[in-house]
Amino acid sequence: MSALIEVASETDFTSHLASLSPSALLVLYFHTPWAAPCTQMRAVLEAIAGQYPAASPPVISFVSINAEELPDISEELDVTAVPFVVLMRGGQRLEDISGSDPVKVRTAIERHAGGAASADGAKTSIPAALSATPRENGPEVATQSPAAASNAPEPAVNAIDVSSTPALTPEQSKEALWARLEQLVKAAPVMLFMKGTPSSPQCGFSRQLVGILRERSVKYGFFNILADEDVRQGLKEYADWPTFPQLWVSGELVGGLDIVRDEIENDPSFFDQFSVNKQS
């Protein structure tokens, strides 16, 4: 049976693509290890992959890609949220599925590759959906920023670092954390909770959102959620939004990169009042 293959580098990804025939269906699954909906989608795709017999060369290939560790691939395919599935054949993009709808994913794959039956003639069932409730206790060690490069980093134009807010002690209550988060989301009229800093973003989604703000000369505050695990985990529940980056405007959650892009598309003047170049 076929299997969901995790690629560890851009080189591995390029080599895998080169090994496929032009007629093979390529199922690309973009994920992050900390997002609960991705856990569900992995189980779904592993079950679907198991329905298709292994062949040489393969007629269908299931590839898993960590969207944060391989940001160049994510950006090339315009992946702005996870989980995200892209179906391709012969270098042509056939269909995208954003989110964790297992029926929609299976239907799309079967439409382009044809359904597959298991050995006993019955189709493999899709695993039950998992809860997407954000974790209360996350990993103890956050990702560290890379060592400073020899060249000076790009300055954080119009960005105000509020990451120095004192961290909570383990004895402090959830109510205290909520009060702190309420202050943080209002620390600036436009607040970006991101992975890394504007001069050294640690994920492709954060880098793209910083670029959007810079292009529009938006004055904004930012918080590096990798530097504070309490904020990183607490904000997921406080906002009822399990992924980062998160953009807040006037104390209200706008959303992630895809939502911000939609807002700008619907209202090109969305950030005008926050621009340092606004008309007086």
TrEMBL record:
- Claim: Iron-sulfur is one of the keywords in the record: yes
Which InterPro entries has this protein been placed in?
A: Glutaredoxin (IPR002109), GRX_PICOT-like (IPR033658), Monothiol_GRX-rel (IPR004480), Thioredoxin-like_sf (IPR036249), Thioredoxin_domain (IPR013766)
Region (Disordered) residue ranges read: 131-154
GO molecular-function annotation terms? 2 iron, 2 sulfur cluster binding; disulfide oxidoreductase activity; metal ion binding
What does the record list as coiled-coil region(s)?
none
Cite the record's Low complexity compositional bias ranges.
145-154
Residues in Thioredoxin domain copies: 7-102
Q: Which UniProt keywords apply?
A: Iron, Iron-sulfur, Metal-binding
Query: Which part of the chain is the Glutaredoxin domain?
Result: 190-254
What biological process terms from GO does the record include? Answer: intracellular iron ion homeostasis
Enumerate the Pfam families for this protein.
Glutaredoxin, Thioredoxin
Q: What does the entry list under GO cellular component? A: cytosol; nucleus
Family as reported in the entry's similarity comment: Belongs to the glutaredoxin family. Monothiol subfamily.
Please describe what this protein does.
Monothiol glutaredoxin involved in the biogenesis of iron-sulfur clusters. Binds one iron-sulfur cluster per dimer. The iron-sulfur cluster is bound between subunits, and is complexed by a bound glutathione and a cysteine residue from each subunit.
The name this protein carries in UniProt is Monothiol glutaredoxin-3
